[in-house]
Specification:
The chain is mostly beta strands. It has a single domain, classed as SH3 type barrels. The protein is 0% helix and 42% strand. A five-stranded antiparallel β-sheet has the order 4-3-2-1-5, with no helix packed on it. A hairpin with an 8-residue loop joins strand 1 and strand 2. Keywords: Ribonucleoprotein, Ribosomal protein.
């Protein structure tokens, strides 16, 4: 597996696509960035339907940046 540097650049409001893991194939907007007890960056992704799920930042790629940066 290649190292995805996009996870270092995630910000609230970014549109993302999950490329691996349990939620592979889902997309939505990044919210709630946290560092877990084990040191991994976790995020909450909110889909357009309002459904939320948590995943590791290394499992997502950024599709569209929030323009309000």
């Amino acid at each position: 597996m290649t190292n995805n540097n996009n996870s270092n650049n995630l910000k609230d409001g970014d549109r993302c696509n999950v490329i691996s893991g349990t939620h592979k194939g889902k997309s939505g907007f990044v919210t709630d960035l946290n560092i877990s007890k084990t040191g991994h960056l976790t995020i909450t992704v909110v889909q357009e339907t309002g459904v939320r799920f948590k995943t590791l930042a290394k499992n997502v790629e950024v599709l569209l940046r929030d323009l309000d940066q």
